[in-house]
Amino acid sequence: MELLAQAQQFISLEGWDKEGLSEMKQQQQKDLSSREKFIKSANAGKILANKCLRCGHIMLETIYYCEKCFGNKFEPVEFEGIGNMVTYTTQDVAPEGFEDTESYAWVVFKVDNAPFRVSGFLPGVKSAKGLSIGTKVKVSSFSPKHGLLLQKI
Amino acid sequence: MKDKVCVLGAGSTKYGKLNDSIIEIALNASKDAIDSAGITPNDIQAGYISNVFGVADKQVHMAPVILSNLGIPHVPGLTIESACGSGSVMFREAYANIAAGFYDCVLGLGVEKITHTGTTQSTTLFSYCSDFFYEGGNGASFPGLFASIARAYMTSYKANEEDLANVAVKNHENGILNPKAHVQRKITVDDVLKSPVVASPLKLYDCCPFSDGASAVILCNEEFAKKVGRPYVEVIGSGRGASPAAVQARKDITTIPSTVDAAKQAYKMANITPKDIDFAEVHDCFTIAEVIDIEDLGFFPKGTAVHAIREGATRRNGEIPINPSGGLKSKGHPIGATGIGQVVEVFEQFIGKAGDREIKNAEYALTHNFGATGASSAVHIFRRVG
Q1: Is the CB of B143 less than 8 angstroms away from the CB of A91?
Q2: What is the pairing mode between strands B213-221 and B105-112?
Q3: C-alpha to C-alpha distance for B207 and A64, rounded to whole angstroms
Q4: B118 contacts in chain A (CB < 8 Å)
Q5: Given the residues B172, B182, B283, B333, the one annotated as active site
């Protein structure tokens, strides 16, 4: 009987109160893997990080233990996916899966207001000459095919 | 450490595009090392194998296959992978097992076969050695990763593309004298600068080739070496280091922390300093890597290596000869074998078999090899005996 009720709830949300729905959403969020959470934030133009509840150190969501004190209790912190390029390259031979893209740059950028850097894929770059260290970029989304997509701003 | 560790024998196939299967390539180098040590396979008590892309030639679980074909199927083997640093990381494990007294004599063999896969697939396979979620998965190739390191270095220390080209010219000059080298071709700075861009700012001649090949050594304790009575080389320092796997996680992109740590350990164990080293084989997968290596190893202060290279300090007759074998740039880079190939060069130098590339009166040599963009490193120091 209980199973049947659960099945009905999955088929239709009818009968769920707001509290139940919120719990389910929280559970779904909890069930996401670390990388899935990072990707979800990236699709909203954000970079997801964790703040260590023991020492306050902030690091990328994808790291499982605090780099400073090795604690594993965190509070999520989202940063705007905006920052300045620290280094970059354009490549004439691309790995498989990237052959169909127009020339692109692989970029490392320092995330504004965060103590870390992130790498991403910046499409539509014909030549490295069009870029320079310090160029401002922002996260546009996460593509299953090309990773963390960036754009110049 | 219980026992002194010695290199009693060494051998390499030619590096380049080889037609033999990966197992045959491995066996050919093993046979050369066994013969050069003056032992038989029956003396080998364990086999340490380094390899990365065996699957590309339809063979994993490589150690038992190689040992079986050497006629010693009862000997335990272990296959080790640490990207481009697999050879030196494996050497360290073999070294540690001899030093601890587990074995008297072991085979250390590195092998790779990759050229049959073609440039795009090789580039792709290599990208799996990166922190893929942040690097390969965002389109970075290995030339791309090192190009990003080069750009950061050139910006920080006002180096230019000609400074990088000087490394390639010097290593090709050495590689011409190495009959086992993959690319035996004299090149000029102009050749490097005019070669096609692979990943800006690195050009074709800034990059090592994809190579097939194998290198092998026989490692043993001092008592065993003396009993055999052949020339041998002593391993007097061993260090291992690690760095954040992704370039983005390095505080300073112009240094490789794993190299610095591994070198400190090796110098301390050997009780010598960088000034005592007479020549070094370092990991020059790209020209920028050699520049950074020789600073991280303590041969030159940070930001000054390009000036020293320009003045000839790293040539065979210079203050500290770097990569007399031709390095990865000219000798080639069969990634599972590279770290062992460096030890083969040291062995040949110290027993008088390096021919025209011999560094005269050398007493101490250093090998340095890393995986990926330096996530894993190993440094070893060797002393000539007799």
Answers
A1: yes
A2: antiparallel
A3: 35
A4: none
A5: B333
Distance from CA of B192 to the nearest CA of A (A): 16
Task: Report ipTM (2 d.p.).
Answer: 0.92
Q: Please name the amino acid found at residue A125.
A: V
pLDDT (tens digit per residue) in A24-77: 656 666 689 999 999 999 999 999 999 999 999 999 999 999 999 999 999 999
Report pTM. Answer: 0.93
Q: Which among A129, A72, A82, A128 is positioned nearest to A105, based on CA atoms?
A: A128
Euclidean distance between CA atoms B10 and B85, whole angstroms: 18
- Burial of A64 per CB tally in 10 Å (0-12, 13-18, 19+): exposed
DSSP state of B146: H
* Closest chain A residue by Cα to residue B201: A89
- Return the HEC string of chain A: CHHHHHHHHHHCCCCCCHHHHHHHHHHHHHHCCHHHHHHHHHCCCEEEEEEECCCCCEEECCCCCCCCCCCCCEEEEEEECEEEEEEEEEECCCCCCCCCCCCEEEEEEEECCCCCEEEEEEECCCCHHHCCCCCEEEEEEEECCCEEEEEEC
Which residue in the set A98, A119, A133 is minimally distant from B248, CB to CB?
Answer: A119
Task: Calculate the alpha carbon distances from A68 to A54, A56, B56, B249, B331 in Å.
Answer: 10, 9, 40, 14, 42
The answer to whether B28 and B13 are in contact (CB under 8 A) is: yes
Six-digit token string for B53: 């892309």
Q: Which residue has the tokens 């299953």?
A: A144
